[in-house]
User: Which sequence fits this backbone?
């Protein structure tokens, strides 16, 4: 299959005007960096990036080793205009969205990187102290690696030739988390040197980092809504996923079937190493060998609490309702089903990258860069879930107490083992491994042909393999906790749960993580619930896949520059042609026999990705630019798995079965991108900038949920599909100002702010109603006030993102939209230079303790989750010599 996508007239128009491209990581001298030598200095040089590059790019770079106040790369990126960081998971930022798209390419020193079987890297695995810079490309050119419709994130590690000679540096930081009540270390060290010899100049660098994070995340949740009589008797016949009317005149009431909480806590450890060797035998040739390692070890628990809220009403009581509706707000019940569980995990990730290459000036006109890259990444996780059950004699529930669900069990002691028994046991593990080989040659040749100044061309070949094994067996039930075979299984949550936020039990009984992760105890549980095996179970064929993907890309582009009426114009025009062939091995299930049969599927396609950019200096202080390009993202490997995995309903807890699977027929997403920017540099270190952008995506991939009857049992099936187009338009505005006419005591005061607006929608092919984009806030902004005076520096910043659609839920009788409420966080960073070589730091995050909430369509009637985020305080010291 051959696909040719063009920008037709738009590319032709920009090509006629021209531009001058600045390469990504292949040409480091072309990208001016934000060197953090001081607060004003770093912010000033950030403006130079906008002014000196034809691509739409933002970068932050720490010249002072360990300068970033953030713990990892994702947290550092939250300060970049147009970047939205996802809601914290396990105390960390979990995802990155660039101008509305989370499909991005991640690279280290220009080499594409990944974690496990993912397309991109878990950027939270890279400690910020190991990073020299982060570059976010919002527009692309032909020499950039394809794979991200949202853009490219390049993490630059240090090399020996970055320094003039011998360099050593250390940083030590301790971070206190107010929820875990622990103080965690964050350490890094660097040593580097370079030597002139008769064989040329040599350089060697070693940079190591280690960080720990004791996290805790507290949340309460409300379940789905169903129709009941006024006395709490379920009414059958409603259609799942179709919202029912909330008028009080109806002959039914809407009430939740369940509510609960989770208390997630544990410890993450992240070691990381970067090694770089360089050799320059002559002024025209440089070679290098880079090796980097990112590790992750995690052990923890999500202690879950689940209770049925549709139990029998307490005699003499009745429901209360939200005013003017039939939606139940408070209820009092008796003999309610109650479950507490431990979702224990022990996970490990190891990712390694090796790259060797050269940079050769063949003559005055020809430059050649070539490199070979190999990387491997493994992810292993033991994931076990064990439920404890009992009945609660009484339950008082308020489904919306200041936006959160409140539960009160009266005199019931949730930490007592009386009457508590073992229920469902989920026995599972995951092993995934990704490997990749890549070879690349890039060349540029200076020419003198009218306005054309340089021609660039190159080729890249990569072979990527992703293999996944997974299983989760389920069986119920076991004995009471008083059984001597369960000695040591009982534990309690940390306590003080959601204190000051909502009425809720502060502590409850939960299975012990350490007990469950012991291999001998796991066999005890398997025997008690009736599994007929010992040791780790065999993998589930429906969760297995092995995919090999070979990609060949060639590109060519030319740079040009000329004057129009005394105005300097420059730019780049080019195209990248990408051929991808893949072999997918998985299992398909026969619906009649339920037998899994191994299959191998093949695919091949070619895509053409044109690009053009244009820049014009309208005046000495005013710059305009236009960029147009096409980009693509391929489906996640797991989304291509052809099998379907089913999980039957759990008696007394869930009324529907669930199922999930992949789709081997998914097409890549292709985006057509336009950017128009105008930038006014009205004073020193100051500017007002604006960019209008448009993105149109074809073959958008979304997960669709349908209700299917299988053997007389309703199952909610979830699978990815290409679903028409998505399109959005937005704009960014940036403002930075350091006034020079302030009183002496205020000299060094400055302000920096940015605002991003995105308006878009998903247009399904089937003719279904258009819907909002997922995980994209229409409005987001940041404001920072900076002050730097002699040895002291301080910065306070506020980052905000508007409400956004997090997904859809086709269960029950409430609106299907899952909407996240707006969220903001305030951070403070301060530093004091004891000497030129020693700096003390003090940082604080989320200082006002802002929480996260979401809801089903209506925040008052159908509130869902309330999540409490931690506040942190860090103190540290940096030294370099």
Assistant:
């Amino acid at each position: 299959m051959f696909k040719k996508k063009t920008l037709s007239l738009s590319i032709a128009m920009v090509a006629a005007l021209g531009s001058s491209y600045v390469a990504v990581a292949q040409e480091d001298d072309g990208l001016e960096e934000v060197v953090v030598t001081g607060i004003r200095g770093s912010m000033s040089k950030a403006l130079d990036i906008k002014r000196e590059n034809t691509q739409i790019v933002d970068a932050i770079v720490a010249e002072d080793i360990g300068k970033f106040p953030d713990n990892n790369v994702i947290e550092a990126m939250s300060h970049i205009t147009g970047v939205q960081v996802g809601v914290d998971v396990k105390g960390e930022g979990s995802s990155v969205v660039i101008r509305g798209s989370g499909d991005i390419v991640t690279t280290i020193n220009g080499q594409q990187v990944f974690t496990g079987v993912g397309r991109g890297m878990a950027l939270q695995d890279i400690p910020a102290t190991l990073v020299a810079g982060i570059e976010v490309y919002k527009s692309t050119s032909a020499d950039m690696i394809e794979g991200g419709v949202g853009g490219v994130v390049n993490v630059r590690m240090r090399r020996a030739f970055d320094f003039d000679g011998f360099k050593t540096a250390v940083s030590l930081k301790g971070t206190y988390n107010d929820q875990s009540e622990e103080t965690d270390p964050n350490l890094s060290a660097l040593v580097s040197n370079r030597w002139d010899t008769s064989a040329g100049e040599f350089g060697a660098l070693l940079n190591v980092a280690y960080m720990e994070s004791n996290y805790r995340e507290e949340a309460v949740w409300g379940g789905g809504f169903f129709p009941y009589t006024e006395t709490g008797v379920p009414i059958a016949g409603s259609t799942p996923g179709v919202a029912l009317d909330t008028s009080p005149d109806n002959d039914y009431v809407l009430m939740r079937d369940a509510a609960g909480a989770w208390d997630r806590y544990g410890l993450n450890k992240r070691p990381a190493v970067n090694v770089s060797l360089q050799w320059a035998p002559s002024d025209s040739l440089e070679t290098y060998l880079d090796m980097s390692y990112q590790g992750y070890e995690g052990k923890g628990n999500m202690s879950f609490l689940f209770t049925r809220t549709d139990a029998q009403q307490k005699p003499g009581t009745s429901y209360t309702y939200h005013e003017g509706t039939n939606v139940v707000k408070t209820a009092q019940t008796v003999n309610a089903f109650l479950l507490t569980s431990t979702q224990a995990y022990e996970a490990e990730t190891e990712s390694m990258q090796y790259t060797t290459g050269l940079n050769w000036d063949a003559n005055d006109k020809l430059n050649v860069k070539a490199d070979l890259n190999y990387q491997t990444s493994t992810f292993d996780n033991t994931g076990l879930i064990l439920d404890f059950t009992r009945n609660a004699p009484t339950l008082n529930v308020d489904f919306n107490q200041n936006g959160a669900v409140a539960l009160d069990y009266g005199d019931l002691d949730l930490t007592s083992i009386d009457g508590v028994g073992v229920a469902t046991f989920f026995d599972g593990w995951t092993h995934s491994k990704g490997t990749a080989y890549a070879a690349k040659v890039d060349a540029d040749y200076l020419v003198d042909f009218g306005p054309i100044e340089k021609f660039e061309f190159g080729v890249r070949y990569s072979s990527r393999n992703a293999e996944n094994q997974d299983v989760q067996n389920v069986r119920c039930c076991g004995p009471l906790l008083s059984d001597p075979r369960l000695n040591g299984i009982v534990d309690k949550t940390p306590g003080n749960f959601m204190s000051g936020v909502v009425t809720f039990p502060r502590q409850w009984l939960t299975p012990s993580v350490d007990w469950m992760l012991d291999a001998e105890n796991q066999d005890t549980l398997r025997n008690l619930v009736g599994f007929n095996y010992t040791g780790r179970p065999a993998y589930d064929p429906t969760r297995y896949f092995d995919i090999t993907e070979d990609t060949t890309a060639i590109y060519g582009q030319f740079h040009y520059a000329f004057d129009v009426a005394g105005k300097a114009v420059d730019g780049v025009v080019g195209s990248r042609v990408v051929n991808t062939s893949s072999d997918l091995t998985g299992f398909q299930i026969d619906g009649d026999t339920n037998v899994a049969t191994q299959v191998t599927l093949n695919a091949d396609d070619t895509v053409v990705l044109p690009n053009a950019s244009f820049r014009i200096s309208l005046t000495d202080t005013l710059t305009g630019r236009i960029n147009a390009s096409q980009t693509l993202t391929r489906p996640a490997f797991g989304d291509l798995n052809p099998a379907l995995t089913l999980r039957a309903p759990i008696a007394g807890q869930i009324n529907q079965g669930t199922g999930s699977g992949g789709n081997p027929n998914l097409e890549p997403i292709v985006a057509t991108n336009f950017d128009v920017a105008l930038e006014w540099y009205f004073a020193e270190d100051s500017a007002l900038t604006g960019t209008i952008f448009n993105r149109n995506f074809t073959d958008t991939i979304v997960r669709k949920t349908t209700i299917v009857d299988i053997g007389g049992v309703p199952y909610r099936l979830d699978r990815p599909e290409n679903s028409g187009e998505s399109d959005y338009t937005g704009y960014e505005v940036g403002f930075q100002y350091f006034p020079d006419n302030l009183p002496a005591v205020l000299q060094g005061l400055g302000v920096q702010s940015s605002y991003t607006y995105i308006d878009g929608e998903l247009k399904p092919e089937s003719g279904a109603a258009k819907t909002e984009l997922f995980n994209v806030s229409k409005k987001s902004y940041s404001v920072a006030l900076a002050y730097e005076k002699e040895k002291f520096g301080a910065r306070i910043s506020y980052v905000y993102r508007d409400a956004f659609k997090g997904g859809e839920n086709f269960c029950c009788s409430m609106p299907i939209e899952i909407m996240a409420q707006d969220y903001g966080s305030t951070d403070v960073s301060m530093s004091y230079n004891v000497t030129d070589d020693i700096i003390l730091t003090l940082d604080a995050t989320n200082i006002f303790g802002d929480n996260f909430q979401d809801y089903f369509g209506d925040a008052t009637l159908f509130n869902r989750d309330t999540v409490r985020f931690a506040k942190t305080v860090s103190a540290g010291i940096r030294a370099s010599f």
